[in-house]
Amino acid sequence: MAGSVNKVILVGNLGRDPEVRTGQSGARIVTFSVATSDTWNDRSSGERRERTEWHKVVIFNERLGDVAEKYLKKGRKVYIEGSLQTRKWADQSGVERYTTEIIIDRFRGELVLIDSQRGGEADMEEGYNPPRQIESSSSTRNQGGSGWEPAPMGGQDLDDEIPF
């Protein structure tokens, strides 16, 4: 079908530590669940309400699987980008069941650790270093300095005062 898109973006918290298993081809498959929540105020009662949705994520990408296995722990906040896939299977009594999952394929998908390490010292011992801000070569060149500073928009200096 031309012109269609199957893309899912989630930002949520891990509900459990990742599970690693080996498929029939010998490739490692990593699975975990991610919780996303919506909060709102109930108009009739004024109470704060919350609804949590659980999403099953399956990683077939070897490198992202390694990252997930090494650094993801229950409660960790992640950004997931993948595709939605529903599969049919039979349970132990032979009843057909359906499962919908977010799939991160070998060549498509993304996994980003959003929060700082929750494990603190444990993650540092394993060699986890949080991402740092990357210098922009064009910004450095525009400013003529060695530190990172954003280049002014349109080559003009910006006032610190808010115009409204």
UniProtKB/TrEMBL annotation:
Q: Where is this region: Disordered?
A: 118-164
Q: Which SUPFAM superfamilies does this one have? A: Nucleic acid-binding proteins (SSF50249)
Q: Name one Pfam family in it.
A: SSB
Give GO cellular component annotations, separated by semicolons.
nucleoid
Keywords for this protein = DNA damage, DNA recombination, DNA repair, DNA replication, DNA-binding
Q: Where is this motif: Important for interaction with partner proteins?
A: 159-164
Point to the regions of Polar residues compositional bias.
134-143
A GO molecular-function descriptor: single-stranded DNA binding
Chain segments annotated as transmembrane: none
Matching entries from InterPro entries are given as: NA-bd_OB-fold, Primosome_PriB/ssb, ssDNA-bd
Listed PROSITE patterns: SSB (PS50935)
Signal peptide annotation: none
- Name one process (GO BP) from the record: DNA replication
Question: What do we know about how this protein assembles, alone or with others?
Answer: Homotetramer.
Entry-linked NCBIfam families = ssb
Q: What does this protein do?
A: Plays an important role in DNA replication, recombination and repair. Binds to ssDNA and to an array of partner proteins to recruit them to their sites of action during DNA metabolism.
Q: Which protein are we looking at?
A: Single-stranded DNA-binding protein
Organism of provenance: Entomobacter blattae
